[in-house]
Amino acid sequence: MRPVIDHVPFAGPDLDALVERFENAGFAPQYGGERTATGTESAMIVLPDGSALELLAPTNTDTNADDGHWPDFTAADAGPCAWGVDAGSVHSELQRAISHDVTVRGPLRERRETDRGVAEWDVGFLGGPDSPLPFVVSDRTPREYRVPDSALYGSPLSGVGRVVLAVDDLDDAVARFTDLYRLPAPERDHDGTFGALAAFPGQDVVLCEPDEGPVRERVERFGACPATVLLTGDVSDAAAHHPLHGGRTLFGKRVRFVDGFDTRLGVVER
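Below the sequence we write its predicted structure tokens.
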């Protein structure tokens, strides 16, 4: 199975504040509804290719710290906290992962009330709490109930292009992905912010083992997790619609970051 990005949750303690931050950066999040079982609510930024950012926050600031899937990220306003991939069947993908000696959690059945209908889906988590592996999603109801149609057609951004996952041990993470997904040997690079990098040809995931600095502190605090989400697009055109800074090159592709998000959200040249 090639891991195809479905969406990336972007966590914070207050949904209105998250939405405002993205609106100030030129995006137009659409309210996604409440998930009563986990005490959370969300807004969605859906890209033209159907991939999405899910802005995620608790509905009650007194919600128990164990509620939701990523409470530590939510409380810390830490932004990208995980990454989800599409699975034809969560049950089958978890069974496949087990056959590769991967610890799994699920399948879990979830639902969210939206203005398009009650969305229901299955979700499963691969690996333990310190795993860089994704969670997997398959819909029980039409996908547009969970992920609305994109409002960004005509945008210079086309989709979630790269998720850069920060890990403590790059070689171990490469081995996990290579075994589970039968991926070819990765290309290597190095960056002052993200440290040593490994990218699998043709895939949307990049692994990094950071040196000293904010990304290293992020790994030490949260374990393996997304360091940044890079949206694919024409960087020059995107700069006319979104405030960008910090130009650099990763794996030969031009990258700039969105103001107001440090280096946790950016644009990579398609």
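The mean pLDDT is 93.
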